[in-house]
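Ticket #4471: structure export looks truncated?
Reporter: QA, pipeline team
Priority: medium

Steps to reproduce: submit the single chain below to the structure queue and open the exported record.
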Amino acid sequence: MRPRSAAGRWAIVVLAAASALSLQACVESLIIGGVATGVVVAADRRQPEVIFGDQRIEVVASNRIGDALAGQGHVNITSYNYMVLLTGEVPSAQVKANTERIASEVPQVKTVINELQIAGASSMASRSNDSYITSKVKSNLVGADKVGPTSIKVVTEAGVVYLLGLVTREEADAATEIARGTGGVQKVVRVFEYVAPTQAPKVTPPVTKK
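Actual output as written to the record:
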């Protein structure tokens, strides 16, 4: 075997260093991602198993409804505390009813709120505007004193804002007023589940030590 040149040895060292840095970055990303997920779960009023159950419901319902629609319509599925909210557009009343039935048959779903509209699918511009409105409402909730932003889930469809969460009446009223006062919001629909004040301590963000 021929001895490697000095340039070759340096190339190997550089490659090894780059690989180590890449591996370190991956590990750091996993750690940071895990910490972020832990913070969200800790701040949410749902139990961890309910949070993951809601995520599973959304995936399963989305797959089943997507297969049934076969490209007809545009349906968003949001699950919170095993309550499913359907928003979007479908071509007929029959498709609307079938979509609700499919969602209700997903394991663990306890109720379905069917807000589907019989209309053509919304444009990408409309959906982008809805995403912008959602981000503005969430931002406004962060600065509110009477409601913890992590206790409220915000969904926007065609300018209509849907608010979900496990909240007190006072928190629901505060969140509703904040959403109504946000630019671009056409209407606010409350899809809350109410709890007593003693069951819903105010959520505060964790203090990060430097």
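Status: closed, not a bug. The export was complete when the record was re-opened. Leaving a note from the reviewer for reference: Residues 6-43 form the longest helix (38 residues).
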